[in-house]
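Worked Example 4.2. Consider the chain below.
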Amino acid sequence: MSHKGVDMCAVPCGDASVGEKIRKWLASQEKENVESFGYPQRLAAFHKLSRAMLMRDVKLDGLVHLSGAAFLASFLDGAHLESLIRREIPHTDALERFVRIEERKSIRLVRRGTVCHWLAGNVPLLGAFSWALSALVGNRNILRLSSRQDDVVTPIMDVLSDLDTVGRRIAAETLVVRFDRDDSEGHRAMSQNADVRIAWGGREAIETVRSLPCPWHCEDVLMGPRASIAVIDAASITEGAIGRLATDVVFFDQMACSSPQLLFVRGRPGHDAFDRFLDQFSSAIASQSGAYRRHRLDASETYQIELDRARVVLSGGELRRDANTQWTIALVSCPVRGVVGMNRFVQVVPFESFRAIWEFFPANLQTCIVQLGATDLVDFTERAALLGVCRFPLPGEGNHFEVPWDGSLLVSRFLRWVTRTDPAPAP
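Applying the procedure from the previous section yields the following structure tokens:
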């Protein structure tokens, strides 16, 4: 179907018209002689989109209740986007023209061209974060949704195209396609026309994208499978921070790589500080699990939760849980092997010395939420960074998309960096 500002393609697996639609759309983009609009105008359009999402625009009724929509709205705030750009680009004027950076050297930042995004099957909204940064600096974008996913992108494009001429142009530069994972022709058509490929998802999805033929100059940005944890001092964390930590667990149902599966808590069971933390955390998880809607668990997910609970009990751990399968907190002396840690299932591991927990850190760590004293924070994060942790947010910020992400500076990879040597001043 087609609608204002964006072309939506939804065809069955194996239908060659997916690739043909992509090629025709790209050809039409090249032929259009329209004003592209610069960085300041695009930034303002995204800020308007953020306001519209926060005001719960009627066209977003089906999206605003989706887990993570509030994070996206905050991410699109103009001041926030500008701060992310400036982390990588101190001279933002170079997005508009050549800017002198040395006595006889100037630099210009130019869009890469076409950025293709393969959205994660479990949290498709994450792809909107990479799309926003890419579109902000002027790229065309193709976003691929699985044929099994609900469309969480088109409602955003509808609202964006109604905001103003700049929003309409950004939406027109975005193609949303929806096809099955086995549609090799559709995948190849995206990849062969990509100047940047960005893939979200598990190992199989990432490796599938990497194996596709692409132009030699194509840049790959891979947001693959990661694990996240939290390291907390029970004696210093406040009740408010405990509530925010629960939010990190509840949002996305731990399907985002940034959601913690393991909580290492300094203290010992039976001591006041530790028991207070566990009581308040359990209460916060229970309350928020009731307040925030979640996806409907299928039979395999329900079975996995019950299986994980049984593993904890058989290993000597203790459970705090609801009457069904909405949330689970497992108090264990060390992480229980085989526990998946999804769908609001958290293992809480007490510790007294950092030396006791290093061995339990997963090899593919992305996020480590921290609440520690000042000295401990410096010592701990220095060592943990060397072990592979990419980011150390505070409680409540675990799922905030930021730059760098997974250790990668995204905006820089959406741009071509052009240098110019300027003539010497006349004598």
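The radius of gyration is 23 Å. The longest strand covers residues 105-111. Compare this with Example 4.1 before moving on.
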